[in-house]
Amino acid sequence: MLRGIDVSHWNNENMNITGADFVICKATEGTDFVDNTFAHWMQRTDGMLRGCYHFAAGQNASVEAFHFFNVTRQYTGDFAPVLDFEINIDHPVEWVEAFVSRYNELTGNYCTLYISANLCSLFNYSWIADFCPLWVAGYPQPYITNWINTECPYNVGAWGKPDIWQFTSMLDFHNTKVDANIAYMSDIGFQALYGVSDMTENELKAIKMHTAYGDYTFGEIIPWIYSYVRDMQPVVFDLKKRVEKIEKMINDDND
After folding, report:
1. Mean pLDDT, residues 191-198 taken together
2. What is the mean pLDDT of residues 91-115?
3. Which of 103, 100, 46 is nearest to 73 (CA)?
């Protein structure tokens, strides 16, 4: 489990970040806004586990994705890309799918999706929950002001559980208040959120595989694998419950 903060121009640029395992920096917003502290934070977090996020404005999703890519491209492979989606618009799922699809076309990578807990159920029937790690925001009351070590209590729909939980905006961190997050992973797990280079991703997807149903590329098969695993989850859960019931009956008989 990792402890991290997220930063933008709202934070003091000289803030002490000692004690944070990772830092997620605001990069862009909409189709043309660049956070004026982005380069500063990227310099300060060089060598750390880190991410960059785009704050969705609900404009053209493809253009917003390109703007995010264009501003952060020099750091590609050295940060976890994040789409911060907090807005109220028509067809939100379709907008997020369009943004993520465009970003994937540009980089070969999928974004982590930051949303509030009450929006998770919107994506229960979207491929987003299969391909995009989840960073969920949910603040228990009263506000938490210290680091915690606990599981996220919110229902996050198709994801089952989040990869990162933002549990407060009021963490007392070196005498200042910051957004605080728990990542349910190791250092290696967090680095996996960085994705791979476009060339590596595309080469992998282009690998030809011979199956009983015909010849397909690995890229064509990946969505089937995710879908199959997702469909099998209820079956596995049911079998687990049946085994536990039989084990209990055996133990009761032995007693």
Report:
1. 76
2. 96
3. 103
**Residue 231 token pair:** 């469909």
How far apart CA 150 and CA 1 sit, in angstroms, is 9
- Residue 123: the pLDDT is 97
Per DSSP, the residues of 230-255 read HHHHHHHHHHHHHHHHHHHHHHHHH-
Query: How confident is the model at residue 43, as a pLDDT?
Result: 96
Go through 113-145 and write b for each residue having 16 or more CB atoms within 10 A of its CB, e for each that does not: bbbebebbebbeebbbbbbbbbbbbbbeeeebe
Contact between 75 and 47 under an 8 Å Cβ cutoff? The reply is no
Is 72 within 8 Å of 102 (Cβ atoms)? Answer: no
Distance CA 78, CA 74 (A): 9
Digit-coded pLDDT (tens) for 133-144 = 999 999 999 999
* Residue 82: strand, helix, or coil: strand
Helix or strand or coil: residue 79? coil
pTM score, whole prediction: 0.77
